Amino acid sequence: MRILGLDFGDKSIGLAVSDKLQLTAQGLGRYQPKNKKEDRRFFKDLVAKYDIQEIIIGLPLRMNGSQGSRVEKTKDFARWLENILNLPIIFWDERLTTKQAYKILGQQKMKHKKKKSLKDQISATIILANYLEFKRSKIDAP
Question: What's this model's pTM, rounded to 2 decimal places?
């Protein structure tokens, strides 16, 4: 069983998937939504290809923990996704993941445009990795 991690944005969605043992998160790139029919097909194919059983979506809370308009858009997307895939959706606090992604990318020698295109994928990977670490800590707790 694998877990899909998503960083939902207006223009693109960062994608990451866990390994079968749910120990690591690997980036899968990003998806640029097109229309409901193509989007539905894309996510159904992705779930089938990787045997996804659970989906983690980054929740863009403000730094003070309050919810803004981005949270509602993210929740609307999550409801749509849950309806078409019939899989559990878990929200994960994504504060500072974009900043972490840019920090990681800042250490790489590549053009700004390339870094920007990788930001969503890396953010999704960070969200999923943090969730996997949290799950392991609950299992390891006495």
Answer: 0.85
